[in-house]
Design goal:
609 residues, Histidine-containing Protein, Chain: A, FAD/NAD(P)-binding domain, 6-stranded mixed sheet, 5-stranded mixed sheet, 16 helices, 30 strands, globular
């Protein structure tokens, strides 16, 4: 074993020295094939390139970066104050499983685990569900044509894709199985189209089909309206789309309905371990609990769904097996007044279209959401700061260059936002049981196609826990009371006039429009505020009801939403944040004796108009 590790170390050191002679780097390899690279790089891009280059070498399973950049201080999250708070708070709770992170992956894991007789707590450092990468992406439930065969990504992408129709039916969220039509206009581009087809077939994607130009027009007649002249195409019917944040909320609410305790503003800051006791586990330690800023949660298992900080959480357990490098993507949202060009996800393949794209990213293109907003992007830009969600001119210029809709101009943009993908250097998912820390389960490094894969990731995580318990002679039994169904929230704008009249006669609050752009009623906001996972912020209501997602971006409705939140939750207006502590919209009450509530007629009582 030592000889093999030493030979591997020599090979990696030689590679690094030859490929990056200007970098001062050293390498260590552990028995698993995890390479830890230390030393100085000349730029952040070189650091990323070194990580990718080493991860591709034979025998290397993944790369941990302890590299730094000359003249640059790389940001790291400081957990010391959270640890102090946690120790001061004492013991918070006791359970079987703690799920850390409530993006779409963590929420899916919490719900899937709720199918079994387990005491589960799901925590997130943020004030709401889906505040990280799960709120800032294009919501693609991807086909498998763009995923490297043989990876865990490919396997879970195909498995997860097949689960979405049932999941949408059970949880009552919008899901559109739109399909993806890729076409070429130049026969010289046929190789690229054929490669995508072969990849889809090899990965086991659902019925990919090479088609001729006539068949392209049959699937998407509007190609002719825009003067497109396809000569060949690839039809991938498995492609779908969702609002990722809506799905994450639905998963978390259903998990809560089935007994999962959801704790928000509860951040994991350390993993408490003890010497391993399990006779069949060769690790160095085992999970005892999770220290949070609110105190210690004792548990048997930890599910690491911490997104951009999943590498930190894994390191807290004593297992440094991967590093996350953030890859920012910027997306422009177009006003719904501009209609999508096509009914399906449709795009032309050619070599020029890929120029400037990150070869490790699926980003870049034109799509539209289930609510029919056109999306342009995302870009792909490596960033040293995991919190760097800026929208820059460089990224905006790049995504605008891929706009293919002649009827859309920059004046039609209603919002530009960025998210950061949690990529590791292997560019694969890390869903596994730690070999170092017993009962620590990773569900990290989940980037695209993570949305579509999330139900399958949750199933794999659950299997890992059940299999581990079985090794100890314990059978984790199914929860006979588990209810997979969540009532779909009222969508007033989708009802017929007769249905609207009947609803308003019983519940007048549904007759008062709060958000004009999206036609959202007061009743819908109230319903969200009495859901199993209560939002406490304006953005939390936005993710559930779409208040503020229209052309005016909350210009008219934000004050009404703030008033309703305060009234329903028994808080003052000045306590209501936009997106969490420190983002309160109003600083102080200038008329503390005035009664500031709506009288149901759109006017403020006690306030001079």
């Amino acid at each position: 074993m030592d000889a093999d590790v030493n030979a591997l170390k020599s090979m990696v050191e030689k590679h690094v020295t030859e490929q990056y002679p200007d970098a001062a780097l050293s390498v260590s390899i552990d028995w698993r094939g995890i390479a830890t690279v230390s030393g100085q790089c000349s730029s952040y891009q070189q650091l990323v390139d070194v990580g990718h280059s080493v991860a591709k070498l034979p025998g290397i399973r993944n790369v941990v970066s302890e590299m730094h950049v000359k003249g640059m201080e790389l940001p790291h999250r400081d957990y010391s104050s959270l640890i102090e708070q946690g120790h001061a708070a004492g013991e918070l709770a006791n359970c079987d499983v703690v799920v850390v992170g409530l993006g779409i992956v963590g929420a899916a894991c919490a719900r899937e685990l709720a199918r079994y007789n387990l005491n589960i707590i799901a925590i997130d450092i943020a004030e709401d569900i889906a505040t990280g990468a799960s709120k800032a992406n294009n919501g693609g439930v991807h086909h498998a044509g763009g995923v490297k065969p043989g990876t865990l990504k490919a396997k879970l992408s195909v498995q997860g894709n097949r689960m979405w129709d049932r999941l949408a039916e059970e949880l009552g969220f919008d899901f559109d199985r739109c399909g993806d039509l890729l076409y070429i206009e130049d026969p010289d581009d046929m190789d690229e189209l054929a490669d995508e087809f072969k990849t889809a077939v090899r990965n086991g994607d659902y019925k990919p089909k090479l088609i001729d130009g006539e068949q392209c027009f049959e699937i998407e007649p509007k190609l002719a309206d825009y003067g497109k002249k396809p000569v060949m195409g690839l039809w991938l019917p498995s492609q779908g789309r969702v609002h990722t944040y809506e799905v994450a909320v639905a998963l978390a609410e259903n998990a809560a309905q089935n007994g999962v305790r959801v704790m928000l503003e509860t951040g994991a800051c350390d993993i408490v371990t003890a010497p391993v006791k399990h006779p069949t586990h060769d690790g160095e330690c085992e999970v005892v609990g999770v220290l949070t800023n609110r105190g210690l949660i004792r548990c048997r298992y930890v599910v690491n769904a911490a997104g951009l900080y999943s590498d930190d959480l894994s390191a807290m357990s004593g297992d440094k097996s991967f590093s996350i490098h953030g890859r920012r993507g910027t997306i422009a949202i177009i006003d719904k007044a501009k209609k999508p060009m096509f009914d399906h996800l449709t795009g032309r393949m050619n070599p020029e279209k890929k120029q400037g794209r990150d070869p490790n990213s699926k980003g870049g293109g034109m799509e539209f959401t289930p609510s029919r907003n056109i999306l342009i992007g995302p870009s792909a830009h490596e960033v040293p700061n995991k919190e760097d969600t800026r929208t820059t001119k460089e990224d905006l210029d790049w995504i605008w260059n891929i706009n293919e809709n002649p009827e859309v101009s920059q004046a039609d943009i209603i919002r530009v936002f960025s998210g950061v993908r949690p990529a590791d250097f292997s560019e694969d998912f890390q869903v596994n049981s730690s070999e170092i820390c017993h009962r620590f389960i990773n569900a990290g490094a989940i980037q695209s196609p993570g949305v579509g894969s999330s139900p399958a990731i949750a199933q794999l995580v659950t299997k890992l826990i059940r299999d581990d318990a079985a090794q100890s002679g314990e059978e984790i039994e199914r929860n006979a009371a588990f209810n997979p169904y969540r009532k779909r929230p009222v969508r007033f704008r989708e009802l017929s006039h007769d249905e609207q009249d009947a609803l308003v006669s019983q519940h007048p609050e549904y007759g008062r429009i709060v958000c004009r752009c999206e036609q959202i009623t007061e009743g819908e906001v109230i319903e969200a505020l009495h859901s199993p996972v209560v939002p406490h912020s304006i953005d939390g209501i936005k993710r559930r009801c779409r208040c503020g997602m229209g052309r005016c971006q909350g210009g008219f409705c934000q004050e009404r939403v703030l008033e309703i939140i305060a009234r329903e939750l028994g808080e003052t207006w000045c306590e209501i944040p936009l997106h969490g502590p420190g983002s309160e919209v109003l600083r102080r009450d200038t008329r503390p004796n005035a009664h500031t509530s709506h009288n149901g007629q759109g006017e403020l009582e006690g306030v001079t108009q």
